[in-house]
Amino acid sequence: MNTNAMSMNARGQARRAANSRAMDAGARAGFVARGVIYLLVGVLALRIAFSDGGGKQADRGGAIAEIAEKPFGNVLLWVLGVALAGMALWRLSEALFGQVGPDGHKPSKRAMAAGRFLFYTFVSYSVLSYAAGDRSSGSGSSDQQTDDVTARVLQWTGGQWIVGIAGVAVICAGLWMAFRAVTRKYHKHLKMAEMTKKVRQAVDVTGVFGGTVRGAVFATAGGFAVAAAVQHEPGRAKGMDDTLRSFTETPAGPWLLVLIALGLAAFGLFSWANARWRRV
């Protein structure tokens, strides 16, 4: 068998794996895992709104620590980490072979899938490392990590521009998430015809509300990064936890954070709807 034939055979096997039931199950498990994390972050944010949160962080690290404290928590973390790995592999298959739908093979779609693959690979690794006993992995403060990275980059030549551009990119990503949610772009990815009227309404409530709030949180975090770049102060940049806490400093007080927390929890429920009705 020549090299060309072997390459085509390997690519064919990879494509079959990408379209397999195992990949389908991995993607759906990943959506369930994502939903769990967002629901827990929403619950932690509610605690912060009504108190100080009991010292817990309202971010992915706080959610992981919360799970670890529960009975059989370590087992749940292993399940969560493996599920997120399934999501990462599914995103990789989309990057290599394109997404479902007529425009799924566009370079922009495949590039976004590649970015999501890297993100979910990192999240899966951090959860599995924590489950394996590395308590410095996964549950670290997103605020401290953001401060450290921002401070390091600001020391580089052109560091202010890099941080500023990254902040603008996060703002744009957040606004795009909110726009997609408000315009219900997610409809094309879901099997809407298989839902009852009440289920469709519930999916739209969680999809629009949750997606808009998620986008707003990202855009706000991006704004803090831009402020850090302009003022050359690493402390101005905020991770998820500090970004959420900042909503309590508005004239609306803790009630705005309550709204944000409910939105993040709603996005968690929307992720579960994706696990059931997503076109994979």
From TrEMBL:
<feature type="transmembrane region" description="Helical">
    <location>
        <begin position="113"/>
        <end position="132"/>
    </location>
</feature>
<feature type="transmembrane region" description="Helical">
    <location>
        <begin position="161"/>
        <end position="182"/>
    </location>
</feature>
<protein>
    <submittedName>
        <fullName>DUF1206 domain-containing protein</fullName>
    </submittedName>
</protein>
<feature type="transmembrane region" description="Helical">
    <location>
        <begin position="252"/>
        <end position="273"/>
    </location>
</feature>
<feature type="transmembrane region" description="Helical">
    <location>
        <begin position="203"/>
        <end position="232"/>
    </location>
</feature>
<keyword id="KW-1133">Transmembrane helix</keyword>
<feature type="transmembrane region" description="Helical">
    <location>
        <begin position="75"/>
        <end position="92"/>
    </location>
</feature>
<keyword id="KW-0812">Transmembrane</keyword>
<keyword id="KW-0472">Membrane</keyword>
<dbReference type="Pfam" id="PF06724">
    <property type="entry name" value="DUF1206"/>
</dbReference>
<feature type="domain" description="DUF1206">
    <location>
        <begin position="113"/>
        <end position="184"/>
    </location>
</feature>
<feature type="domain" description="DUF1206">
    <location>
        <begin position="29"/>
        <end position="97"/>
    </location>
</feature>
<feature type="domain" description="DUF1206">
    <location>
        <begin position="209"/>
        <end position="278"/>
    </location>
</feature>
<dbReference type="InterPro" id="IPR009597">
    <property type="entry name" value="DUF1206"/>
</dbReference>
